Amino acid sequence: MKTQKKTGILLLNLGGPQRLEDVRPFLVNLFSDRQIIRLGPALLQPIIARIIAWRRAPKSMANYRRIGGGSPILEKTREQARALEVALAGDGDFVARPCMRYWHPFADRVLGEMVAAGVRELVALPLYPHYSIATTGSSFADLQRTMARLRLDLPVREIRDWPAAPDYIACLAARIEEGLAGFDREPVDLLYSAHSLPVQFITEGDPYALHLQQTIRAVEAVTGKQGRLCYQSRSGPVEWLGPSTPEVIRETAARGGKNLLVVPLSFVSDHVETLYEIDIEYRQMAEELGLRFAATRALNDDPQFIAALRRLVLDACAG
Questions:
Q1: Which residue in 19, 21, 75, 303 has a CA-CA distance of 20 to 30 Å to 67?
Q2: Model confidence over 90-130: pLDDT tens digits?
Q3: What tens digit of pLDDT does each residue of 165-204 get?
Q4: Domains annotated on the chain, with CATH
Q5: What are the residues facing 240 on neighbouring strands?
Q6: d(CA 123, CA 9)
Q7: What is the 3-state secondary structure (H, E, C) of the chain?
């Protein structure tokens, strides 16, 4: 059944610096958000964020330089938005746009485009399959604040999480089977690498780690292959979820493992965490330890992944 109203789909994502000169202000925005990391007293967080961004910017700029001088996340999200519009063409009148949290395009600009396009309702679709207050929660809160500031009275359908969406799971499983095939049927250690999160968030009830396990169980029911969950991308002076991906890579080599396949579990498009952290940093570490290393391809605009997003949108509109 086709939707009757013109519907705007906000693909909520982190965002990333498009040029090297964007890195420092992007990091300031990131570390200023108390929902993603708590740095000292709330009143001092903006100051602490600027200090951390100043210190981290040179290293981050070097990492972005290694992958072409900026993050591809905006272009990848635009490709996903275009593909989603095409997939939904027979289901109603939909407009899909990236809506980033810490770098352009921010919610105010995207909402303005939606209003100009005549959108009558919104679907907030986070490109985070696993809910956390630090990702989906922060994006939802920012969207609500922005709509209040702009005095927009549009209904918003929020898609909170989708860790076991069938087409998402099928797409992940296909990527894993593809990666395993490259090892010529030799034994392979499978690592699911997810973005880490401060432990305090989990102790306060954040469901992120549980959602990761839901995804892993669903994928392994399809592939019949078991793997180990580990975490990457720690930042800031707090206790983070572990074990870290580098720790597990070293453990794998120490016990005599030979082949390693890393699955970027909580990332649905290429950006610095996949292109630099996994494909360059972890690959170099593994190969220096004598491991044969591979990583599964990002989902990006894979038709099966876009089918998962389409189903999420239609289910939200029918609810």
A1: 303
A2: 999 999 999 999 999 999 999 999 999 999 999 999 999 99
A3: 999 999 999 999 999 999 998 999 999 999 999 999 999 9
A4: 20-66 (no CATH), 166-295 (3.40.50.1400)
A5: 198
A6: 5
A7: CCCCCCEEEEEEECCCCCCHHHHHHHHHHHHHCCCCCCCCCHHHHHHHHHHHHHHHHHHHHHHHHHCCCCCCHHHHHHHHHHHHHHHCCCCCCEEEEEEECCCCCCHHHHHHHHHHCCCCEEEEEECCCCCCHHHHHHHHHHHHHHHHHHCCCCCEEECCCCCCCHHHHHHHHHHHHHHHHCCCCCCCEEEEEEECCEHHHHHCCCCHHHHHHHHHHHHHHHHCCCCEEEEECCCCCCCECCCEHHHHHHHHHHCCCCEEEEEECCCCCCCHHHHHHHHHHHHHHHHHCCCEEEECCCCCCCHHHHHHHHHHHHHHHHC
Place of tokens 């809910």: 131
